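Writing this down once: the sequence line spells out the residues, with the fold written below as integer tokens. I am pasting one below:
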Amino acid sequence: MGSSRPVVAVVAAAVLLLVAAPSASAASGCASANASADQVPKRTLVRATLCVLNAERARHDLRPLRLNRRLGRAARRHSRAMARKRFFSHTSPNGATFVDRIRRTGYLSGAHTWHIGENIAYGSGDLSAPRAIGTAWMSSPSHRENILNPSYKSIGIGIALGTPSGDGGATYTTDFGRRR
């Protein structure tokens, strides 16, 4: 995997996708969507990522996702772990799955039913920008399925500086959820 391409993976297929350049997306109005990880604060990248994903959902007549504190905590911790420990997987080196990580935050506590999913990605330079990551995910059927899943209502977005390959850039985790 070269450092000049964003890398993405999804639980549904555990697929790696390499995309050389971002294409135009529905998120043209999202502030900072083209900013790389070294240009703006992580909080700005999170908001831009949410905007990019919600613009895609709007194009498909879906309700926007709302940030969820607990899903965000699980996503942030996973992105940091992947960048620091240099692994790229939905399963941590200690064997914890995304379900385990989300459960530890308390998100699933008290829920009668729940539905969760996860997308991960990383990129360097311009390809660490929210629009580039969103375009890569939308170009992959299994990632696209998570983004456009109408049952998801909430999202946690975790972005860590650095990548599993050791390059500069950013590592992204999005944890999707709905609980009742």
User: Anything to note?
Assistant: The first strand starts at residue 7 and ends at 10. Residues 42-59 form the longest helix (18 residues).
